[in-house]
Design brief:
four-stranded mixed sheet; Immunoglobulin-like; Glutaredoxin; alpha+beta; single chain; 11 helices
């Protein structure tokens, strides 16, 4: 019996001496040491799918050392912040013990991180972006130096070409980063990385990266909120694409134009179908849209010329406020029918007519059937000349 009990007793003693496995810990620890950071405040925020949430704060000691210890249920993104200019984005998994050091006065370019594979990947991503920005800053310096030179326009074109090359190289880096790390949440940050004020990857042009990352991360982190948010975005984009495809098929020449019933500036509902018997231009525009406003004088000439022959314009405004809308009508001297639900790009007519940008128009015949869409003003006039003489 002793020979049986002894191994069992030894097993319990050994288990009692073991520390919890990293995967079982529901907390993370950050040990930091910053230069130029004597007795300063360090903030820790969580980057959720919708906002930045303050999580904790501490103060460094006389040597710039600090620490955070927080419970964590799932992997997530966190912002370590000295001030608005000196921040670090971390990708933290439950159970990680992270060591970070750097210069508090130049944190984005100086920090080093250990103990967190995801945070190390974000550091790589951040470093490459900063290098690209540095190259752009050099272009800006050259631009200012040659601004008043005789060959400025020619040299500016050269600088524009260099900027485009820098952008494309950063874009390719992000593509490669995602392809090399399809199972890391760090790729979510890469997926939505901006270069200046422009997204490097757009769903309309690079959807394969969004879809691939959504599929791979769902296998690794099926319940993670950031993955669920990405899945929702991917699914929504697919639904929108399907709706656009259906709308395009419905808007093919010869099909009956979907009816629209919206209020005019006085609040009276006006139906597109009430203009049957006339050739009608459905004109999507807005008072805040400069190209729309520039087109209105020429459109007014066309309207006045062909209106007596049976031409109508049913203008759908995408304005936000009645005041802005009515002011635009008044300033441009518009006399044709105007309607709007003042819901901006959230109006149901956007999907109904697959409006991707304004100005946009659809021309329909006397029976309410679609003749053509996306016509320029010169093309519109040629069509009207053929139809109405």
């Amino acid at each position: 019996m002793r020979k049986i009990l002894f191994p069992i007793l030894f097993l319990f003693i050994a288990m009692g001496c073991q520390t919890p496995r990293e995967a079982d810990r529901k907390e993370f620890v950050i040990h930091g040491s910053f230069n130029n950071a004597e007795n300063i405040s360090i903030e820790l925020d969580e980057l959720t799918t919708s906002d930045l949430t303050p999580l904790d704060s501490t103060r460094t000691d006389a040597h710039g050392n600090f620490a955070f210890r927080k419970n964590l249920e799932e992997a997530g993104f966190f912002i370590l912040r000295v001030d608005a200019e000196n921040t670090v984005t971390l990708l933290i998994e439950p159970g990680e013990t992270i060591r970070i050091k750097g210069d508090a006065q130049n944190l984005p370019l100086s920090y080093e991180v250990e103990g967190s594979e995801g945070s190390a990947l974000l550091a790589m991503l951040n470093q490459r972006l900063k290098e690209s920005y540095k190259r752009v800053d050099s272009l800006g310096k050259v631009f200012r130096e040659i601004k008043y030179e005789d060959d400025f326009l020619e040299r500016r074109q050269e600088l524009d070409m260099v900027y485009t090359r820098i952008f494309e190289e950063q874009q390719q880096f992000v593509k490669d980063f995602i392809s090399d790390n399809p199972g890391s949440l760090a790729s979510v940050i890469a997926l939505y990385q901006y270069f200046g004020n422009k997204l490097l990857l757009r769903e309309s042009e690079h959807f394969e990266y969004f879809e691939m990352l959504s599929r791979n991360l769902s296998e690794v982190y099926p319940q993670n909120r950031h993955v669920r948010d990405l899945n929702r975005r991917v699914s929504q984009y697919k639904r929108n694409q399907l709706q656009r495809q259906i709308a395009e098929e419905n808007l093919a020449p010869g099909n009956e134009a979907p009816d629209i019933v919206l209020p005019d500036p006085d609040g009276n509902p006006v139906a597109l179908s009430s203009f049957r018997g006339n050739v009608v231009l459905i004109d999507f525009w807005a008072a805040w849209c400069p190209p729309c406003r520039e087109a209105n004088p020429k459109l007014k000439e066309i309207y006045e010329k062909y209106h007596p022959l049976g031409f109508e314009i049913y203008a759908v405004s995408l304005d936000r406020t009645r005041e802005q809308w009515v002011q635009g009508i008044k300033e441009d001297g518009i006399t044709w029918t105007q309607v709007s639900d003042l819901r901006f790009w959230n109006s149901p007519v956007i999907n109904l007519y697959n409006v991707q940008g304004i100005p946009f128009s659809v021309l329909i015949d006397q029976q309410g059937q679609i003749i053509d869409k996306g016509l320029s003003l010169s093309e519109l006039e040629e069509k009207l000349k053929d139809i109405l003489g």
